Amino acid sequence: MTRPINADVPTVEAKKPSAPKAPKRRRKPVPGALKAVAGLFVLAVVFIVAAILGGGGGGEDRGTEAPAPVSEAPSTPAEAPAAVTPEELGYPSFATANTTRVGGSDAASTAAAVALAAYPSAKPSQRPPAVTLVDAGDWRTATAAAALTASPVGAPVLISEADGMPDATAEALSALAPSGSKDTGGAQVFSIGAADTPDDLRTHRVRREGAAGAAELLALRERLTGSPPRHIVIAPTASPAFAMPAAAWAARSGDPVLFSGPKALAKPTATALEAHPQTPVFVLGPSSAVSSDVVREIAKLAPHVRRVSGEDPVANAIELARYSDGGFGWNINDPGHGFVVANAAEPLDAPAAAALSVSGTWGPLLLTDDADTLPSALRGYLLDVKPGYTNDPTRAFYNHVWVIGDQGAISVNEQAEIDELAALAKIGGEE
To answer: Helical H runs in 25-184?
Structure first.
C-alpha cells in the first residue's frame, strides 16, 4: 500500500494544551492518481523525486529582519485531516526516462503535490519557513505571489478558496508544517486576497487583489528582503496565457510581477514604478496584450524598459526562456536544463508549479496550447536544446521536463513526445 511521503513526520507539539482549530475546508473529493498507460514506463517516484530535488528551496540568509506585520497566533500548524495518499494529492505518479508528471486534476492538488516535491518535509530542514495561500479565483495575484517562493523568503504556493480550504491544500499545509523565520518576518503563512486561512498560524495578509495586490506584494517582498527589486515584470492583466511564464521567473528571481491592461497602465502599477525609477522593467507579451502606448507610458516612469514577447502564448513563453539582458531572463539556449510544461488554458497552474522552477533542475515554464498535439514552436525549441553525446553518455548534459496537469491538460501521447525530445542522443564519435 502506498504511504504518504510525510507519513513518518512527527507531529509538532502545540504550545497550548487544547488542540489547534482545524482549518475550514471545502469538502471536495481529492483527485485520484492517473492510471498507468501502455507505452510509458510506470515508476514509483515518490522518493525518487525527493532525491532529484534534494530538498529544494533553500537560500542564503539575509541580515535584515523585515518589519512585516503578522497576526498573533500559536506557531503550530493545524491538525492534519485524515491522511491521503501521494497519488490523491496529485503527487508524481508516473514518469518516463526524461519527464515526470504532476498530475493533479485541479490547481489545488497540483500545487500541493509541487510543494511536497520541492519540500519533502521528512525532517525540519526539508520544510519551508512559510507557505503562500492564494485564492483560486484570482490568477493575477497568485502569479505575483510566486515571487515569495524565491530565496530568501522561500514560501511555495498553495491554493485555497474564499469558502474553505480544499482537502489537498489542508493536507499539504499540515505536512509542510511551516514554522516562520527571520526572512518571513515571523509569518508562517502569507494569505493573499480572499484565500481561506487557518486561524492558528501566524499570518501576514495581503487583502487586495489584482493589480493592487501585485503592487502590495512588491512592497512586502522589498520589506522582507531589505532591498529593492533588481527588475520588474509587467504582465498583461487581460491575457492570462501571456502572463503565465512570469510566475516561474518570479519564483526563480524574486522579481515582482505587476500588471497592465492592453491600453492603459493600472494606477497601482504606475505608482509602484514611480517609486522605483531606476529599476529595469520588462514587459511580457506582444502589443496586442500590452500596447506600445502603454510601453511608452512606462518609459516615462522607468527609462529602462524592454519588451519580451512572442506572437502567441507558446512562442511568448519560449522567448522568455531564451531571453537574456543583464541579469534578467533564463538564457536557456543550450542543453542541460530543467523545464516545466503546462497548458496555456490553465493560468492558475503557473503559480501552482512555480516551486519547480526554483528547486531540483530549475527551469522556465513552457506552454502547450493543445492537450493532444505538441505545438511546432515548442517542438522546435526542445529540439534546439536537445542534449547529445559523442562517446560517453555518463559525461553528458541532461534535460528533465516536469509535465503539469492530468491527461485533460497534457495527454500521455504528448508527454511521450516531450520525453523523446528531451532524451539524450548520440551525435557521432567512436562506436
So the answer is: 46-53, 107-118, 139-145, 167-176
Model pLDDT for residues 348-360, shown as the tens digit of each residue? 999 999 999 999 8
CA atoms 41, 42, 44, 50: torsion sign: positive
Q: What is the DSSP string of 20-67?
A: PPPPP----PPP-PPPP-TTS-----HHHHHHHHTT-------SPPP-
Euclidean distance between the first and the last CA atom of the chain, given in angstroms as a whole number: 45
Strand order in the sheet with 281-284: 257-260, 232-236, 281-284, 305-308
Using the predicted structure, report yes or no on whether residue 221 has a pLDDT greater than 90: yes
> CA-to-CA distance for 74 and 199, rounded, in angstroms?
9
pLDDT value at 116 more than 80: yes
- Please state the pTM of the whole predicted model: 0.81
Contacting residues for 301 by C-beta, under 8 A, at least 6 apart:
270, 273, 274, 277
Whether cis (ω within 30° of 0) applies to the bond prior to 152 is yes
**DSSP letter at 11?**
P
Cα–Cα distance for residue pair 259/277, rounded to 1 Å:
17
Whole-angstrom distance, CA of residue 372 vs CA of residue 349: 18
Strands 305-308 and 281-284, by their bridges, are parallel
